[in-house]
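Human:
Class, as today's exercise, you are to examine the entry below, and be ready to discuss the fold:
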Amino acid sequence: MEHKLTVCCGTSCYLAAGNRTDKLEELITKEFGDKVEVVPSGCIGQCMKNEASPPFVKFDGEIISDATNENIIKELKKRLT
């Protein structure tokens, strides 16, 4: 894997997006092959630090807010193409 996507599964993010990790992994594999590893995580602590909306993910150390599956794929396309 070349890149790491950490998916916050803390309470706020879970409630905002539900547990979408399986579907997200499927979408990412379809779009990017094995270039991106999807890793579920406990709270990544962004709700208290960030004025943006959950759910949050961390891609190669950079936070992405309002991280719906659609927004994540769009952001990864920007960064990987």
